[in-house]
Every structure is written in structure tokens, then in C-alpha cells.
Amino acid sequence: MSDNRGMTEQAAFLFDLDGTLIDSVYQHVLAWKEALDGEGIPLSIWRIHRRIGMSGGLLINILLRDTGLDLEPARIERIARRHSAAYLRRVGEIRPLPGARELLRALTDAGIPWAIATSGRMETAQPTLDMLAVPEGVPVVTRDEVRHAKPDPDLFVTAAQRLGVDVRGATVVGDSVWDMLAAQRARSLGIGLLSGGYGTEELERAGAYRVFDDPQGMLDHLEELGGRL
Questions:
Q1: Among 32, 67, 122, 217, whose Cα sits 20 to 30 Å from the Cα of 18?
Q2: Buried/exposed 167-176: b ≥16 CB within 10 Å, e otherwise
Q3: pLDDT tens-digit profile of 46-84?
Q4: Domain 25-93 belongs to what topology?
């Protein structure tokens, strides 16, 4: 992990995107299903959902391990492209989660630093970032910019660096066990949201110290989480 000494110890929030701020998990699941079906790879939807939140390349590798298949890199890349195309066709169905815009606005108005760190690539993230009206200057870190995505901590470490804060004093907010595992590896606190489909106990076992239904639930308790308004 990078040495963050010399950075400020100001509290900060590092947000996942899909399933945390944007109600897009199931569109991703269906897009992966369509991409795999297009390659003649049958896989149950629930198995795909359990892997959402990790990087696309890692997700494909693990899903293929579940099927016992061994695919050449060119075909894996084709599956990833099929997923992106299928997801972008569904963007019109996607909306911010309840309280997402209000939570981010409250943090901004209070001068509390925050950033977004997503395992998605900018190609698929940009349309949903636009829905959130992310202010200019707020760091957004995507899979394109780091060596490893979740459950590795690189995304959150990079986001903290761009905010100028120590990742060990930041709080990671995510909807999946992969977010919470990445938070633990970064030595950050983790807040879990149920809006991605994982259960309370799963998120707590992975390291979440608080769990809320969605961004609105977090906003309602923000002052309990170190975010003084």
C-alpha cells in the first residue's frame, strides 16, 4: 500500500457506485447474463449476482471457474465488450438510489470530502455519474486507472490519495462484500448498504461496522458516522 504519511487526517467518505449510489446492480447482472449467453456459456443469474462488485476481468474468471471452462483471452475480452454493450442499452432503466443525490449534496455543503471509486470502467460509469450531478473537482476513480480492482484496495487507496486524506482515516461505503473486504485491506472503516442485494450479516462479516438500507438511511444517521453537518 502507498505511504500516506503527510496527508491530512480529515474524515472522508469513499463511495462505490453501482448498488451504492445508483440502482444498477440488476442491470449489470442481466448484461453479464446476456454476454455469457451470447458466447454459449450457460450460468444461473444468482451466481452472477454473487460476483457483482469485483472487477469485470476477475468476475469473468471466477464465473468461468464455476462452469469448468477455460477460455482464451480474446474470448474473455469479447465477453467483457458484450457486457458493456448490453449494460449501456439498459441505462435508461437506471436511477439514483433514494437519498443518493441528497447525501452527496449534504457532504459537499458541509465541506466533508468524498470521492467515488468503482470497479466499472468509465465507459459504463459515465452515464450514471451524470445522473448524480457529481460536482467538478470530486475525484472519480474507475477500473481503467488502477492495477487491481475490488476486492483489492487499490481503488479506495487511489481515491483517498486524490482527496489528500489518509485512507486509514476514511470510511468506505459500499453494497457488496467485495467493497467491505477492500476496505479492510485498506485499513478503512466500512459502511454497508443493502441496496445491492447482499444481506446485513454478510456485510457485517465482511467488515461493515454499520449497515443501512440505502443512501437515505445513511444520510439520516450521518452525524453518527463522523459527518458533522
A1: 67
A2: bebbbbbbbb
A3: 988 888 877 667 777 777 777 777 767 788 888 889 999
A4: DNA polymerase; domain 1 (1.10.150)
Instruction: Identify the residue whose cell numbers are 439498459.
Output: 90
The count of other CB atoms within 10 Å of the CB of residue 68 is 6
Grid cell at residue 49: 449476482
- Per-residue pLDDT of 112-156, as tens digits, reads 999 999 988 888 899 999 999 898 899 999 988 988 888 899 999
Class at the top of the CATH hierarchy for domain 12-24+95-225: alpha beta
How far CA 24 is from CA of 91, 117, 149, 162, 225, in Å, comes to 8, 15, 18, 26, 25
Instruction: Name the packing angle between helices 122-132 and 100-109 (round to 10°).
Output: 70
Q: What is the gyration radius of the CA atoms in the chain, in angstroms?
A: 17
* Size (the chain), residues: 229
